[in-house]
Every structure is written in C-alpha cells, then in structure tokens.
Write a structure and sequence with these properties.
The complex is a heterodimer of chains A (384) and B (531). Chain A is built from 12 helices and 10 strands. By secondary structure, chain A is an alpha+beta fold. Chain A folds into 4 domains: 32 residues; 85 residues, Helix Hairpins; 150 residues, Cupredoxins -  blue copper proteins (Immunoglobulin-like, Sandwich); 99 residues, Cytochrome Bc1 Complex, Chain D, domain 2. In chain A, a hairpin with a 6-residue loop joins strand 2 and strand 3. Chain A starts with a helix and ends with a helix. Chain B has one domain: Cytochrome C Oxidase, Chain A, CATH 1.20.210. Chain B starts with a helix and ends in an 18-residue tail after the last helix. Classes of the chains: A alpha+beta (384), B mainly alpha (531).
Chain lengths: 384, 531
C-alpha cells in the first residue's frame, strides 16, 4: 500500500469514526447506553460498582495503549527509528505483576460488601414463590400480606404483532414482548423474598431495574430478594434459554403504594372467592367446551395451534389425534402427568374444572366430534 | 528422544521420500505434517464459512423486531450450531493446523511423533462436522439447546441431540490424539541444543494447550455421555426427580468450558508472540515471564469454572471464592499484554498485514479481557449474565482475539508455506474491513446487554431495535469481508510473487533461518545445528 493510499485510508477511517461519534453524541440521550436506572438501593450499589470498575478498566486501557500507540507512531522503521535490543527487566516485571494485583484487591473490597448484602434474604415482608414453566411464569404469594394469592402470567402481546401481520400494532406498542396478562404486584418499600423453582427446564427470573436475576431450577428452590423504593412498573424477561418460546415469557412487576397494595390484595381475594366453582354445579357439554376454549388459548395454543393441527415434526396435531379420540382416561392421565422427554408438561396445576373443560374442548373441536363431556369429578377421581 | 525420533525418521525416509502419492490419495493417506496442517486449515476455513452463514441467519432475523425470516426453533438451532461449529470446527482446528505446520519446523524435527495418528485425528473431523450438519435435518430440526447444551433442555430435545453428542465425542477423540502427538513431538523430538526454554513461544503455548486438552476433553465427553444415558438409558444424573441435579451438568460442562476458553486463546497468544517481535525487529521483552504467565493462566483456568454460573445458585462463600480466583487471571494476562507492548516499545516497526492483525488482536483482545474483569464481579455479573454484554465480551475474545491472531499467523507464514507472497494491499484491506465491521457488529452489543437484552432470543423489545440493526449490518460486512480473505489466499497460491527464504526481516525461528521457501516436503531429516 503506497504512502498516499495509507493517508487516504487513515483519513477515511478518521472521518468514519468522527461521523460515528458525532452521531452517537446526538443519540446519547435517546438511547439506553448503560444499565437501567436502578429502583432499589442495592441496585444503586451495583450500578455504582459497575461504574467504578468500568472506569478503572478504561483508565488502565487508555494508559497501556497510549504507550502502544506512541510506539506505533514514533518507533516505526519508516521514520527511521532503529530497534533497541533490550529485553528482560526484573524490576519492571515485578512491578507490572504486583500493581495489577493491588488494583484487583481494591476492586474486590466493594464487590465483596455488595455481594454479601445481595445474598441476605433474611426477614422478608413478603415471600413469593415463582415457578418457571415452558413458557410462562406462575406466582404464589406464600407469606405476608396477600398470602394465598396465586396466578399465572403469560405474554399478552398479540400473536399478529409478533408474526408480522400487524406491524403497525407492533410499532405503536411501547411494551412489545414486555407485557403480561397478570402483573406481579408488590408493595413499595417492603422487602420481597422471591423463591424460585421450575416445572420443566431451567429458566431465569430477570428484572434489570430491580437488579434481580436468579435461575429457576427444576426440583430445587433458589432465592433472591428486592425492595423497590417507589411505585412503578418494571419489566424483564426470562434470561436462561428454555426452548422454543424462551424469548416470549416476560416478567412485569408492578410496585404499588402499600395502601393501594392492600386494596389490590382484597380485590384478588374477592376474585378468587368468586371464581371458586360451586362443587355441586352440573356442567353441560357446551359450558365445558366454552370454558375449555379459553383454557386452551392460554395453555395449549402456542404448540398445538388454534387449528389443532400442531406443528409437523415438533408438536403433534390434536385434530384427528388417536389420543384425543381414544379413551377419556388416557387423555386425563396424559394431562396430569405430562409426557416425559417431550415438551408436553404436566398440567396438574390447573383446576379440575379447567382440565375437564380443556379436555372436553379438544374432544369436540375442529374435526373431533366425540360428543363426550369430561366432568370435573372425573379429573378429581383421576388425581387420586 | 531416540525412541520416538529414530523410527519416524526412518519411516519418512523409506516410505515417503520422493514418491508421495498423487491426487486425492495424497491427502487421504497423508502422514506428512505439512499436508495434514494444510487440510486442518482448509477444513477450519470451510467450517468458518458454515458457522458464518449461521451467524448471518441469526443477525438477519435480529435486524428488526418481530419474526421475519426464521421461526424460534430454527433460530435456537442456529445459535447452538453456530457456537459448536465455530469453537470445535473453525477455531480449534485452525490452531491445530498451525501446530502441525510449525512445531516440527520450529523445533528442528522431521515430522510429528505419530504421523499415522495425525492422519486419523484429522480425518475424524469431517464425519463429526457431517453429524453436526445432519442434525439440522432430523425430525424436529437441530437441537436448540445452546452450545452449552444445558440439561434438562438437552434431555428434552429431539434426535438431533444424539447426533450432536456423538459429534462432540468424535471431536474430543480427535483433539486428544492431536494433543498427545503435540506433547510427544515437543518433548521428544527437539533438535540437539533446542532446550525447552529456547523454543519459540508458539511451541510453548501449544505444549501448555495440549495438556489442557488432554485434561478437559474427557470431562466434556463425560458430561455429554451422561446426557445421552439420561435421554435413553434411564439414568437421572440431571433429573431431580431421580435424585440428580441439573446444575451438576453445568459444573461438569464448565470444568471443561473454562479451560476451553484458554485452549482457544493460548495458541493465539503464541502466534502473536511470534509476529510482534518479528515486525518490531526486537526480541520478545520477557520470554521467561511469558512462559510462566501462560502456564499460570492454564493452571488458574481449572479453578474458576463456576464464574459462568453465578446465577445458577451456590453459597455466597463459593461466589466469593470464584470471584477472587477469576480476577486473579487478570494478573498473568496483564503480564502478557505489558510484554507485547514492551516488545514494540523502541522497536523499528513496520506494519505489514500480519502485524496489523497482531496489533488489532492486542487492542481488542485486551478490551475483551477488561469486560471479562467487569463480568467476574458477582453483583455486576448478576445484571449482565446471559445478556448481550456477555455475547459482546466473548466475541471480542474469540473473534478479535483468536480469529485475528489466526489471520495474523496465516499472512505471516503463507509465504513460507506456499513459496509465494500474498497481495499486501488486499491484505491491508482485509484487515481494515474486518476491524471496522467487527466493532460495528459487536461494540453496540455491550449497550444492548447493559440495557437488559437477554441473549438467545429470536425477537426483542422495540427499544433494542437500533443497536440490533447496526450490529446486523456490521455482521454482513464482516462476513463478506472474509470472502476477500479467501480470494487473497487463492491468489497467493496461484499467482503470488515468489517469496524469498526470509521475507520478514525480524523473523528468527528455525523455519525462517534454516529452511528454504517454500518449506520442503520433509524439513529436517538431519537435525539442524544450533548455536
């Protein structure tokens, strides 16, 4: 490469980087270039820790490469620099081993304090169990105000926005993929301990603004905690690859003033009482089918599809399926136990009425016309 | 050294000398370290293109929010096999190719210690690659489990998972045989006078890497075999319902996985340690401290594995230990970086393509090292784990680190290998294009990770759109720039200018000082005389 070429190249590069940095400058307020604004005191500490360490690294980086670039420009053959032949210098080598070591200790001190604070889940005001499912989250309020509340939380972004049939809707949706049907509601200023587990594979519960990320491991309980300072809605996502819809199981935490939270709890409890089904109610086939269609949409549709045709090679069709058209008892057993080694998980967490509904629906939807209803009592009997 | 040296020498003399098989059989039956090295390098480049196409599929889907080009299952399969193919198919074989070509020439040996095993270790690679590619066509598609293949997702996956497991087994066997060959060659076949502490640093880095490989590849094989028996033979290693633990898989995998990072990085250090002194016209500043730093990194790499699993759940004491141990790696790594800079200091530098790639390596690998230090701090990692920050971090180390170093090595030794010079102007274009597009692709991913975008998702929230677009444009630019590299290499082989025996003024290892260009079919039938 000739000299002029080199200069032209360097000038072009300089121009390029100048353009990029000028552009970056203008965008810097618009875009998120750092961690999200922390909403907990601990999150603030982590934010500061990240800043300190990044700045230390940046200073060392600039220092080391100042030497290198000085050498690159001054100690080059083309400016007539003759090579010195020095090598090995014990004093220098000891210095550049010990100094970094000291810097590392300086970094470790604040990191240790923050870590120990982070892991202290003792004395919570509220304990919530979070269960990861493929692909939704289950929440059970175990202890504290709201004890007994229990619900599932699934993605509420319409399918049409995701698959591109409703691009305008996606563009107008500021919470695309970060919205759920049921928010996890917690009171502000209270320590919330989160217990985590999973029903199938490993998931991770991650809410950046609350500085929380913890894996949910099937068969084990992990815990973490947060104490949100002020009311607001904070959004996160599953952070551990958990299969097909890993990108589609968001977390929405809604922090309320304690008084508002109390009202929310009362409202939830009322709702739960109302939805408690009269055990003596007799269900007709039509009632069950209508109820089951809703349950199907929430739990089954992602894999088996609205058409009941499934996805060839991945998820079996239910329309015309031998299982669905066969004996009721087999299908009930499959839904209660799941099918090990496949994506078909156990749905025993659903109520008797929900399971009876969804089974009745599948046996009477699409081309399936068994005309059979499965009564909630049959599910109850099969559970034992 | 006699036991290994004499028979090899004799064999080479009797069977091969002067009448090598021609045509395809020259390659199929080859026991020649140079031919096998060449095959490793071409295989590696082919896999680099396959893995690259997968990367471009990923980046094209992520160009904008929504699902446009591929569905989530296929996307997950792409991230999985992109990782596996780049790590096991592209980067590792590339450096084994360098080892085959260079170690015998640099220590004054006639060939590798076990030429027939050398042939087998190469020819195990294509079947393994075919298994990984065939996995895409199994019912249900490729296994979308991530290159880390975490249980129980991997025990749930379709039949593609079994092909993947067998591919990993075969790749592991190949690596172990290659490593035994390298260790034996270096320890037994050095020319008289070539003491260990006189070896070029490249040989040292490979000696250390080979020990790492022999130690950890069986661990990986164990992990995937346990997955296989969990899938088909009723064991419950990773199933809590049967008394197992999914996190056990992660501990075993990362006990392999962290040394694996250095298996990739250490030979890259070796190449750069040859290139920088040659173009600075000045000896490596601290040869002995470089050897000790490399060995320290290798030993430390066995003690830090759980820093990949800070959020998996472990006692706070364990997190503290793994955090302290991990930050310690910065010390020997720093020693290496300072050494390279001190080697350049007061040199008489020129900036041919190998040197440009070596400087690019030094600058960007160090940047990736610093983001690694940020990630080693547990509370910070809890924010960044499994986000794009991690993706940016390891691509700085793997691409700007290992791959740039491999490019530096190719341009450096291509004249010796082919007898012809590459096109310097085009080489420089390749460097600048790679450098710019690499940073366009990966620098912005730091911001995505900081803002909270998880990795391995096929669709994302709208606030991540702009940086993803920039990253995707960079990825296409980077990918297309590599076709220029292919053109440069082919042009060099076919019509490059004749290269002198020592085209680089400052190069001083035996392949430059004691051998003609191109390097003859058999290098040192008689050991060279060393001062």
């Amino acid at each position: 490469m000739s000299k002029t070429w080199m200069h032209k190249g360097a000038a072009a590069c300089a121009l390029f980087f100048w353009a990029v940095s000028a552009w970056a400058e203008s965008q810097i307020r618009h875009y998120q270039l750092n961690l999200q604004t922390p909403q907990t005191l601990l999150g603030g500490k982590i934010y500061d820790l990240h800043t300190i360490i990044t700045v230390i690294c940046f200073v060392i980086f600039v220092g080391v490469f100042a030497f290198m670039f000085y050498a690159v420009f001054k100690h080059r053959k083309s400016v007539g620099h003759k090579a010195a032949q020095f090598h090995e210098n014990t004093a220098v080598e000891v210095a550049w081993t010990l100094i970094p070591f000291v810097i590392l200790i300086a970094m470790a001190v604040p990191a240790t304090g923050t870590l120990i604070a982070m892991r202290d889940t003792s004395e919570p005001d509220l304990t919530i169990k979070v269960t990861g499912y493929q692909w939704k989250w289950g929440y059970d309020y175990l202890k504290g105000e709201g004890e007994g509340i229990s619900f599932y939380s699934t993605l509420s972004t319409p399918r049409a926005q995701i698959d591109g049939t409703d691009i305008a809707g996606r563009k107008a949706n500021p919470h695309y993929l970060l919205e759920t049907d049921n928010h996890v509601v917690v009171p502000a200023g209270k320590k919330v301990r989160v217990l985590l587990t999973a029903a199938d594979v490993i998931h991770a519960w991650y809410v950046p603004a609350l500085a929380v990320k913890q894996d949910a491991v099937p068969g084990f309980i992990r815990d973490t905690w947060f104490k949100a300072e002020k009311p607001g809605i904070y959004r996160g996502q599953c952070a551990e690859l958990c299969g097909r819809n890993h990108g589609f199981m968001p977390i929405v935490v809604e922090v309320m003033e304690p008084a508002q939270y109390t009202a929310w709890v009362a409202q939830q409890q009322k709702k739960m009482a109302a939805s408690k089904v009269d055990p003596n109610k007799t269900w007709t086939l039509e009632d069950l089918k209508a109820h089951g269609e809703k349950i199907y949409a929430q739990n089954c549709l992602a894999c088996h599809q609205a058409t009941g045709m499934g996805v060839p090679g991945a998820f079996p069709a239910l329309a015309g399926s031998k299982m669905v058209l066969g004996p009721k008892a087999d299908q009930i057993k499959l839904l209660l136990a799941g099918k090990p080694g496949t994506a078909m998980a156990s749905y025993k967490q659903l109520s008797d009425v929900d399971l009876a509904g969804v089974i009745t629906y599948t046996r009477n939807a699409w081309s399936n016309k068994t005309g059979e209803a499965v009564a909630p009592a049959e599910i109850k009997a099969a559970r034992n | 050294m006699d036991a290994a040296h004499a028979p090899t020498h004799g064999h080479a003399h009797d069977d091969d000398h002067g009448h090598k098989p021609s045509g395809i059989m020259r390659w199929v039956k080859s026991t020649n370290h140079k031919d096998i090295g060449t095959m490793y390098l071409w295989f590696s480049f082919t896999m680099f293109l396959v893995g690259g196409v997968m990367a471009l599929t990923i980046r094209s889907e992520l160009f904008q929010p929504g699902l446009q080009i591929v569905q989530p299952d296929f996307f997950n399969s792409m991230t999985t096999y992109h990782g596996l193919i780049m790590v096991f198919g592209a980067i590792m074989p590339a450096f084994v190719g360098f080892a085959n070509w260079l170690i015998p020439m640099q220590i004054g040996a006639p060939d590798m210690a076990f030429p027939r095993m050398n042939n087998l270790s190469f020819w195990l690679l294509p079947p393994a690659a075919l298994l990984l590619i065939a996995a895409q066509f199994m019912p249900g598609g490729g296994a979308g489990v991530g290159w880390t293949m975490y249980a129980p997702l991997s025990t749930q996956a379709g039949p593609a998972m079994d092909l993947t497991i067998f591919a990993v087994h075969i790749l592991g066997i190949s690596s172990i045989m290659g490593s035994i060959n390298i260790i034996t060659t270096i320890l037994n076949m050095r020319a008289p006078g070539m003491t260990l502490m006189k070896m070029p640093l490249f040989c040292w880095t490979w000696l250390i890497t080979a020990y790492l490989l022999v130690a950890v590849m069986p661990v990986l094989a164990g992990a995937v075999t346990m997955t296989l028996t969990d899938r088909h033979f009723g064991t419950h290693f990773f199933n809590a319902a049967g008394g197992g633990d999914p996190v056990l898989y992660q501990h075993i995998f990362w006990f392999f996985g962290h040394p694996e990072v250095y298996i990739i990085a250490i030979p890259a250090f070796g190449v750069v340690s040859q290139v920088i002194p040659a173009f600075s016209r000045k000896p490596l500043f601290g040869y002995a401290s470089m050897v000790y730093a490399t060995a320290s990194i290798a030993i430390l790499s066995f003690m830090v594995w759980a820093h990949h699993m800070y959020t998996a759940g472990m006692p706070v004491e364990a997190q503290l230990y793994f955090m302290y141990a991990t930050t310690l790696i910065a010390v020997p790594t720093g020693v290496k970086v300072f050494n390279w800079v001190a080697t350049m200091w007061k040199g008489s530098m020129t900036f041919e393509t190998p040197m440009l790639f070596a400087i690019g390596f030094l600058f960007l690998f160090t940047l990736g090292g610093f983001t690694g230090l940020v990630l080693s701090i547990v509370p910070v990692d809890v924010q960044l784990h499994d986000t794009y920050y991690v993706v940016a971090h390891f691509h700085y180390v793997m691409v700007a680190g290992a791959l740039f170093s491999a490019f530096a090595g190719i341009y450096f030794w291509l004249p010796k290998w082919t007898g012809r010079m590459y096109d310097e102007t085009l080489g420089k274009w390749h460097f600048w294009l790679s450098l710019v597009f690499f940073n366009v692709t990966f620098f912005v991913q730091h911001f995505l990770g900081l803002a909270g975008m998880p990795r391995r998702i096929p669709d994302y929230a709208v606030q991540f759109t702009e940086f993803n677009m920039i990253s995707s444009i960079g990825a296409w630019g980077f990918g297309l720039s590599q076709l220029l590299f292919l053109y440069i290499v082919i042009k060099c082989i076919r019509s490059g200018e004749k290269a002198p025996d020592k085209p680089w003024e400052g190069a001083d290892s035996l392949e430059w000082t004691h051998l003609p260009t191109p390097a003859p079919w058999h290098s040192f039938e008689k050991p060279p005389v060393l001062k």
